[in-house]
Amino acid sequence: MTKETLNKSDRPLTSTHPSLTVRTFVCLGVTLIRWPYQISKTVRNIVIVAMIATVLVSPPPASAEPEQEQSTVLEKLSSFTDRAAQIAIEALSLVGIRYRYGGNSPEQGLDCSGLVRYVFREAGGTDLPRTSQEMSRRGEPVDKQDLQPGDLVFFNTLNRAFSHVGIYLGNNQFIHAPSAGRNVRVENMDMNYWKARFNGARRVLENEPAPR
């Protein structure tokens, strides 16, 4: 396993929202995990509301007509409350949670698939399978160049396909629970270790029924 590296650039999580950065979310997650987890969930929800309020009161372009201003506000609001943003925020609130094989909750600890399953359930009520290999059969395949925040990214870390899974955040960053003795963290998919082991990606549709 490679050493932990956090990309310290202040690039946006998505290209259309320059104020929403990976570093901002990571710092938020690291701050919140210093509180008892139940408290951090409440604080995180307050922060989400504050972020939305900030967007709503931000000044529109000087040339904007009233109709354009309203449309811009609604677009920005939906961007903060859409499923991908909720998944990213939920996942980043878990930065620093210890790895535990078979772990299913922040209190117990989380392994890679446990983290993904927990985040998707908490963020939108989506019930994913327990293992990364089973997850690799859900949703639809996504090319690497078409990745979007909230997509699942898979890696071969145990000499078998789809043996590791994480959640894509944007700007080639993903969050995952690495291995025993380590904590949930954000890493860069451009690192040689991850580039060599990338297995593919899937986009799980909202309320997608489980395969029979």
SSE map:
Blueprint: H1 22-32, H2 37-57, H3 66-81, H4 83-92, E1 104-105, E2 109-110, H5 112-124, H6 132-135, E3 140-142, E4 152-155, E5 164-170, E6 173-176, E7 185-188, H7 192-197, E8 198-203
Antiparallel strand pairs: 1-2, 3-8, 4-5, 4-8, 5-6, 6-7
Features:
two-stranded antiparallel ribbon, disordered N terminus, 6-stranded antiparallel sheet, single chain, alpha+beta, 212 residues, endopeptidase fold (from Nostoc punctiforme)
Return residue spans where pLDDT drops below 50 for at least 5 consecutive residues.
Answer: 1-23, 51-58
- Tell me the major beta sheet: 6 strands, antiparallel
Query: What sort of overall outline do the alpha carbons produce when their principal axes are compared?
Result: globular
Proportion in helices? 25-40%
What is the name of the CATH superfamily?
Answer: endopeptidase domain like (from Nostoc punctiforme)
Compute the number of strand runs: 8
Widest sheet: strand ordering: 3-8-4-5-6-7
CATH class division: Alpha Beta
Protein described:
- The chain is α+β, with helices and mostly antiparallel strands.
- The chain has one domain (22-203): endopeptidase fold (from Nostoc punctiforme).
- The chain has helices at residues 22-32, 37-57, 66-81, 83-92, 112-124, 132-135, 192-197, and strands spanning 104-105, 109-110, 140-142, 152-155, 164-170, 173-176, 185-188, 198-203.
- The protein has a 6-stranded antiparallel β-sheet with strand order 3-8-4-5-6-7.
- Helix 1 (22-32) packs across helix 4 and helix 4 crosses helix 5 (112-124).
- Residues 1-23 and 51-58 have low confidence and may be disordered.
